[in-house]
Design brief:
The protein has two domains: 66 residues, 2-Layer Sandwich (Alpha-Beta Plaits); 66 residues, Ribosomal Protein L9, domain 1 (3-Layer(aba) Sandwich), CATH 3.40.5.90. The strands form two sheets. The protein has a three-stranded antiparallel beta sheet, with helices on one face. It has a three-stranded antiparallel beta sheet with strand order 4-5-6, with no helix packed on it. The chain is of the alpha+beta class. It contains three helices and six strands. The structure holds FE2/S2 (inorganic) cluster.
């Protein structure tokens, strides 16, 4: 479920269900994205341009933004690209329309789609490929260690993720 955090200049939304724990947010702007604070997102704690730039680096599409200050909205690339990641999901960059079983239609500018077949949240990757030690060729996505991913191959579970509250 997507939650909305409204600031003065920018509105940020987050969907933990599709987060793949790349932690671009926590490491990119720790004053805005603070795991143990409530609310964990303070959109006005940095310039809207900086918040938007960090969110656009979120590979899963879990984080989105809506500029309220007249600044540029995120533009999905004209051509949608799908890149298999090494031992992992398909990284999609471009406009994606997801039609959920419950009828909800969601548009994302980025997404990580399951390639291993084991996700419990298809079509999205839920990191099940890590426990299954899925092997496949592809691009290497740089992922840094963080509080939500203390070990590269073992991100914290959604149940243990403080952002669910
Ligand atoms: S590729 Fe990640 S859960 Fe399938």
């Amino acid at each position: 479920m997507r939650r909305v955090y409204r600031g003065r200049d920018i509105e940020v939304s987050f969907d933990l269900d599709i987060c793949t724990h790349a932690a671009e947010c926590l490491l990119g702007l720790p004053g805005v994205f603070e795991l143990r604070r409530r609310p964990w997102v303070l959109p006005d704690a940095a310039a809207a341009d900086a918040v938007a730039a960090v969110i656009e680096r979120c590979p899963s599409g879990a984080l989105l933004y809506n500029r309220l200050d007249g600044g540029p909205q995120e533009e999905a690339p004209a051509t949608t690209t799908i890149s298999p990641l090494l031992n992992g999901p398909l990284l999609v960059r471009g406009r994606v329309e997801v039609r959920h079983a419950n009828g909800l239609v969601e548009q994302l500018p980025r997404a990580m789609l399951c390639r291993c077949g084991l996700s419990k949240n298809k079509p999205f990757c839920d990191n099940s490929h890590l426990a299954a030690r899925f092997q496949a060729s592809g691009e290497r996505l740089r992922i840094r260690l963080s509080p939500v991913r203390p070990v590269l191959e073992k991100p914290i579970s959604k149940a243990d993720d403080p952002r669910r509250d």
